[in-house]
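Final report, closing paragraph on structural work. Over the funding period we assembled a curated collection of sequence-structure pairs, and we close with a single example.
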Amino acid sequence: MQMPASMSRLWLTIVTTCYLKPTQIVHRVLMIFRTRLLHRSERYLERFANAADGAHDFTPLRFTVIRPSSNKLADIKAGRFTFLNRSCELGVPTNWLPQSQTRLWIYNLHYFDYIRTILIAHQERPSKEFYTLFRRLADEWIDSCPIASSQAWDSYPLSLRLNNWLRAYDVFGAELSADIPFAKKLRQSIYTQAAFLEKHLEYHLLNNHLLENGRTLWFAGLFFHGSDADRWQKTGYRILMNGLEDSFLDDGAHDEISPMYHQIMLDMYLEIADVMESRGEPIPDLLPERLEGMRHWLSAVLHPDGEVSLFNDSAMGIAGNPTDFIGSGYGASDGLTALPDSGYFIFRDLSKKHFFMFDCGTLGPDHRNQHGHCDALSYELSIAGQRMIVDSGVNDYYGDIDSRNFLRGTRAHNTVVVDDTEQSEIWDRFRVARRARPKDVIWAENERLMYVTAAHTGYERLPGKVTHRRWACFVERKFWIVCDRLEGEGVHEVESFLHFHPETTVNQEFGGTDSGQIGEVVRGDTALQVLAWGQREVKQYHGETSPLQGWYSEEFNADTSNTVWGLTHRVALPAWSGYVLWPESSDASLEFEAFKDSAKLIVKGSGTCYQLSFNPAGVELDIVG
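Its predicted structure, as stored:
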């Protein structure tokens, strides 16, 4: 009997809530109380408006680095804005709440990141027109978005907006000094927003949202003088320092384990260190240590094309050029790079520009995994500097819910789906109920073999208590092996997915095979043969809509159809399957034999015979010829 939708949602809510910290639950209740009751009270809102008169003493902050924005100056002047690969004519004056756009797009509008284009233009060629443009936009916003306006005054966009306005106060300091009425109005708004933010810190979410709140409060506390400012400064500093302690893993990763958000957090703490240095303030000992670890981690997870991997909620074109944040001395390492705390393992051959990144990690911290995907034991592969096998990426968080669920789901990743079940119970855009746990993670490297083996618990809730175990190998820096074992009981439907980059040409040679070549994938001058065992059928998908499959989104709202293989079989457990990824020009063949708790694979190619033995403790390799 299927549970009614309302009861199912209630069950998911209860399970998800069990993973939260008490402080998150308390602050979520307080948030609901404020937004549904207090924000309707004029008396409550007047407290924030009355706190600011524009006459508070202040000292502009100094920002030595302003990151560029993708918005063009001519477009901004014309009231035309592009975010997340979607353009919209908002006119002059600006329509601050366009009904045709998603919540995330409107958030980007209220971030005011686009004024960085104006600021950089003014730094390169000072002109009154740049100040006039900034003045118009800020003045329109102040007049059009009253206190507590939905979306405009949400804490995250408020935080990013104030940071950008404080940068503008640095760049346009001379112009503002001569424009006393508007300067007073601007400072009054900054003060009011900071006061509002102090009472609306995102403790219900924690993670990168709270850290951004902390940076903004700290900046505002440094900018203004007085008792309120002192309190903001102390609160913001405490949040930022607690973040250094609690929000980063020992291998250097930001604990949401998203390469994109990691880069955003690296940018944030680099700016904090920059402001501290410009003010002559002592830099906490932990900050340089964290920055070094974050740079090493980011350099490790970059593909040879210089862009981030797409695990979890990651996309290109959001956080800037990753290499701009790394600096000299932080290049990627050759060989096997183990990042066990975040669960990522990279096989890299720098000379050939080969890159294989294997995910053996969690979705993120249990209490804050809003950006986690069902990608346990998935991977990405670049060959000769080009992406060949890809993560499906991420779309607009607040766009089509089916697309959001697909891209978070197991079928969007290069891993195994059992009985059409998600590894983790994702729901409602950002939430996760029961979630997969990695276990038995082992890795090793020698001059001929790099390998990682791991398992996850996501399917143990199925009848038969299924465990998925996978071995990923890089043999003699020539080819890769992905070997799977499903442990448990009963008969199950199994599908192992391979997602190919849209620019590849995919030639499927056989509709199904137990052991042998199933096709070739070509991109430019690079060809990749795929040889499989343990499969009964190879399904090919491309731009399917019901259900969704065969879609790739390396940037927000940039869906492109791509070819996906589903290697399928109905099998009694325990069962073995897998495939060889052979990029050599010569043909290859394979033989596979399974035993009770181990298996043997023989791969023949290029005049050499490779014999590999797989067991839960690792992999052994013998080479003949």
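Residues 227-246 form the longest helix (20 residues). Residues 66 and 129 are 19 Å apart (CA to CA). We thank the funder for supporting this effort.
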